[in-house]
Amino acid sequence: SVDKENMITCTAPVNIAVIKYWGKRNEDLILPINSSLSVTLHQDQLKTTTTVATSRSFQEDRIWLNGKEEDISHPRLQSCLREIRRLARKRRNNAGPGFDATALSHKVHICSINNFPTAAGLASSAAGFACLVYTLARVFGVEGELSGIARQGSGSACRSMYGGFVQWIMGQQEDGKDSLAQQVEPESHWPELRILVLVASAERKPVGSTSGMQTSVQTSSLLKHRAESVVPGRMVEMTEAVRRKDFAAFAELTMKDSNQFHATCLDTYPPIFYLNNVSHRIISMVHRYNRHYGETRVAYTFDAGPNAVIFTLQQHIPEFVQMVQYFFPPEINGGQFIKGLSVDQAPLS
Ligand code: PMV
User: Fold this and answer.
1) Tens digits of residue pLDDT in 2-14
2) Cis before 75 (ω within 30)
């Protein structure tokens, strides 16, 4: 039996990195080797919905992902649960009698659903852990800075704790207390910006980000160069491009950073291939499109999978979508398109 007051449902959207996070300096605390910057999608697009219930009758903490029960002892899940309960105890001890601490004495049942393919390089863990941490915080009455806890679930999750344009500052401290997400600009800042997802494959990725990053940190000298000498400058330039709403600068940095991330994957030994033929054709198509107009109107970026995330401005959407449909006709490739920020039904690849 679940007490209605002790059940809360929240949603959290996916975020798409335009300056990529790849590589940890501390595996347990999830501290990155470089800062990163992302755009959080709207709540009604790619998102996770999580319900957390507490009840006196629950015997143990349990979790279901997309309807299937998963192992609650997963270390990163445990980190999030432990940290939220720690904050809740702190709050209870400081708050005195007014604070309802019933939830603290109960076990939780967590139910989480993605409205997009899990682990296909579409940042499912980012939305998932952000949503988990936020919902748990609500259930336990915890407020304030939560991105440091979401980070311990999945690094990129800390950026989904905020909307709009968000940076994850790598921080300097060994305890990770300064490795937090921060909003650069709210989503209202750049209303013309649009995001489309072109699904090249909805399969699970062959190399997960955790093991991929480990191998890259151990073997890629390009990754070291990138983290130390390239990303710091790009963070400054990207923040500026966003502030100025300079699409060409934003787009060029986004594409270069995606390309360098995938170059570090190739530089990893043994190499990691996240892009497929369709991804490569999308990259060529975008460059040809931009060259045709003599200006950068469209940008692509790819995470740990072959699916393209496209950035463009509202005015270019109809033409660009038409071109994608021309080059990737649905009946030939039989793929599937997931909703873009402004397009419901669209092209396939
Ligand atoms: O947070 P993780 O472990 O899922 O890693 C995400 C890594 C990339 O998506 C490839 C880049 C990023 O910054 O989101």
Assistant:
1) 555 589 999 999 9
2) no
Give the list of residues 6+ apart from residue 102 with CB closer than 8 angstroms, or none: 6, 54
**Does ligand 1 come within 6 angstroms of the Cβ of 260?**
no
Q: Is 125 in the pocket of ligand 1 (CB under 6 A)?
A: yes
ipTM associated with this complex: 0.99
pLDDT digits (tens, 9 = 90+) for 205-257: 679 999 999 999 999 999 999 999 999 999 999 999 999 999 999 999 999 99
Closest ligand 1 atom to Cα of 15 = 14
Secondary structure (3-state) at 129: helix
CB 52, CB 7: distance < 8 Å: yes
Q: Are 220 and 267 in contact (CB under 8 A)?
A: yes
Q: How far is the CA of 122 from the centre of ligand 1 (A)?
A: 9
Distance CA 81, CA 179 (A): 19
Q: Is 51 in the pocket of ligand 1 (CB under 6 A)?
A: no
Nearest residue to 54 via CA among 97, 12, 106? 106
CB atoms within 10 A of CB 117: 20
**83 CB under 6 A from ligand 1?**
no
Question: The pTM is what?
Answer: 0.92
Classify residue 96 as exposed, middle or buried by CB count within 10 Å of its CB (0-12, 13-18, 19+).
exposed
- Domains of the chain, CATH where assigned: 4-189 (3.30.230.10), 193-338 (3.30.70.890)
